[in-house]
Amino acid sequence: MSQNPNPHPAREFTPSGTLQLGVFFQGVNSGTIWKTAGSGSQTDFESFRRLAQTAERGLFSAFFLGEGLRLREHLGRPHALDVAGRPDAQTMLAALASVTSHIGLVATQNTTYNDPADLAHRLSSLDLISGGRAAWNIVTTDNAWTGANFRRGGYLDHADRYVHAEAFVRTAKQIWDAWDDGAIAASAAAGRWSAPGAVRRVRHAGRHYTVDVTPRLPRSAQYRPVLFQAGDSPEGRDFAARQADVIFSAHPTFDAALDFRRDIVDRTLKAGRGANDVKIMPASEFILAPTPQEALEKKEWVRSLQIGPQQAIAYLEQFWGRELQSFDPDGPLPAIDPVVEETSETRGSGFHGAKARQLADQWRAEAKEKGLSIRQFVSARTSRGDSTFTGSYTEVADQLAEYARAGAVDGFNISPWLIPSGLDEIVDHLVPALQERGVYPTEYAGTTLRENLGLATPVRPAAAAEAEARV
Ligand SMILES: Cc1cc2nc3c(=O)[nH]c(=O)nc-3n(C[C@H](O)[C@H](O)[C@H](O)COP(=O)(O)O)c2cc1C
Hints:
Helices cover 38% and strands 13% of the residues. It has helices spanning 45-57, 89-97, 116-129, 144-147, 158-177, 234-243, 254-270, 292-306, 309-320, 355-370, 374-382, 393-406, 424-436, 449-453, 462-467; strands spanning 20-25, 62-65, 73-74, 77-78, 104-110, 134-139, 202-205, 210-213, 226-229, 246-249, 279-289, 388-392, 411-414. The strands form 3 sheets. It has an 8-stranded parallel beta barrel with strand order 1-2-5-6-9-10-11-13, surrounded by 7 helices. Strands 3-4 form a two-stranded antiparallel ribbon. The longest helix has 20 residues, at 158-177. The two termini are 27 Å apart. Flavin mononucleotide is lined by residues 66-68, 108, 110, 139-143, 158, 230-233, 235-236, 248, 250, 283, 349.
């Protein structure tokens, strides 16, 4: 059962006909060009400030940060596809809260290596500091190597991770629900820090963590942080259907987005929530220009800089599990076979073992058939080809308007390929074109993220209230 019951859940999905935009400052990735004029730092605050303020000028609802708790590495070296590490999301977003006024601040934080009472408190802090603009993008993390960096070591199996995540999020919600409105005693004369009985104690004793806490912070202007979710397995989708307000999805093409919407509506109804209760914002990339032809030429240029010769070889090494430095990036895929037992992209969800050879055969056949060199093949695989909207401003605006009218998505989470100016063109040209088509807001709906995303205020489950100790 959902922790966020809608008393009158809608059975039919109704498209809102509008879109929201978010920006995903990636940091760790192969999509950001860092070797051209205008490429800024991936770690300096100035880059984040510039991007967040541009996004706010374009009425974006969300500034989004991912999480990587350890530098990716391969064969003992830092991963050649990563531009840089990532500053801690909550620290960065707290700083951005003070130089922005409306944009939502979304921190990706995993449930596998955090503890719920601590994380809930830190997210409450961000929510209070920002005046109700915080969100938590819940991930379980497929990065096994992260575990080696934590006291408990190792990591949970896939299925266990979602069981753990569910208990984690329920506990966090109890913590955020624990203060009634007006819980802080209004005057010194009351002689107590909170009104009697207005704060509840939260207890949980489970397999992975225990909690016994009197939550320390009141509700924020938006009640509690908005919950995003990213994770695409059936378990991940069911988890989102029960717990999330917004899904950061990986299905941006029109037909795939519609299929994903149908699937999520189904799962949300089964979880006892309404058909419109979970918003969907897929990852996306935009390559725009005044004319279609210029946009295509720009795409060629962007792609050539995203994947250089070393990046192409390093990418293949992850799958071959061996040094491939002697191969020509502009030649065919290596004829030698992968080192089977060493081969796994993520050590958690990537393929490994005998499958590596099968995949190598498949890739060699595909590259041969299409006449692609290593570099061209890798570029096609890693460039988020499916999630790229390429075209003139008006062409892409028409395309997005179609998504809005069909209700395929509620918005897009954009990864700029240039930091920090990568949103300028989108804000200056695409946003006005979307506004002309009536599918994009012309002002912020309110000051909280919940208001700007059009989300209902959570309802505290009444049954739980009576069962809990009050302090
Ligand atoms: C669009 C998207 C973005 C993600 N971003 C992150 C991230 O920033 N950090 C992270 O540790 N995992 C991230 N993940 C992975 C999730 O942690 C998730 O655990 C992983 O996809 C495995 O779950 P699944 O099998 O349900 O997909 C992301 C997943 C998706 C689909």
